[in-house]
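Students often ask why we bother encoding 3D structure as a string. The short answer is that it lets us treat folding as translation between two languages. Here is a chain of 343 residues written in the first language.
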Amino acid sequence: MFQSDTHLPQLLAPVHYSDPGLLEREVQKLMMPAWHCVGNIDDLSQGKECYRFELFGKMYEIDGARRSIRMAATPSQSRSDRLYFSGRVQVVGKLVFVSLSNAGQSLREFLGTHYDYIRDLFGGQWQRFLVAPQIVKANWKGLVENILESYHLEEVHKNTFRTFPSADVCFHDLHDSWSGYTERNESEHSHLRGGVATISRLLKVNPHPEYRHIIIYPNCVIARMGLFNWIQTILPITPVQSMNYWQFFFLRGEKKNPVAWATSELLKNWGRRFFMKALEEDNQVLEGVQAGLQSVSHPKGGLISAREERIFHFQRHAAEQTGVVPVTYATGRDSAMKWSGTC
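And here it is in the second language, the structure alphabet:
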């Protein structure tokens, strides 16, 4: 179940979702030492010379042959003028990760106990069917917190995820560098109900009945749901603008015949509609949340429920890593925490 039996304090003040100085510290202390998933192995194959992506306001290229990173060329530069720098590129399963630093943790160390899990989860049986890079008008921490709580499901996702599960089937894992959520439903209420069983039989695949959701701090999110899984990379652009980079996969199996091919196409088409709708629903709310954080007045207290304890865990990690100092204040009968922006 949940690891807390009471409400937890909101650890970050509204100003910390729009403060340029704090964002600069977050990039240096949280983002630069981390590994970021920026693509799929197919992006580096099929004769492609390079794969271009943007991190923290600069444009980069991955050289497919050398598996190295270089700065993207400006119009005035020739190919020979571009110098390679000490970034790193590694592949796990079908996922391409980059680090902008030549020092620090290896990718295996960064992913920790999830390395083999991710390698298998995004391995040969899984095919990417949707890439969805989205710019959202909200602070990057708001994007993280949105996927760490489930209360918004019944209000925001009425036409997609619809309801949040009861507490007795929800399990949280809280660790120093990551947190996880597992939903263990009975078979008739799992993500394998309905037509999923028929599709699995036609494709000759065995999807896992549990819903599993993991965030590896600061910004690498992995989830598994029935016949689908996905990886989400959350990147800050400005204090009030972020990039959500989604990659969705489906369990295609190995069966090769017209029925399996048609089933796969139907599954991909349904998945594209479903997930794009869910992302649109979230984005509409996130912009409103950011506007509320930048309002001149805010409700007091800021306490969150035990169901949202992963938000508390994430905020504590971000505050500790960036040197944000806690200040206690009273709000009527409740006690909460306010965090200053000083080191």
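Translate back mentally: The chain has eight helices and 15 strands. Keep this in mind for the problem set.
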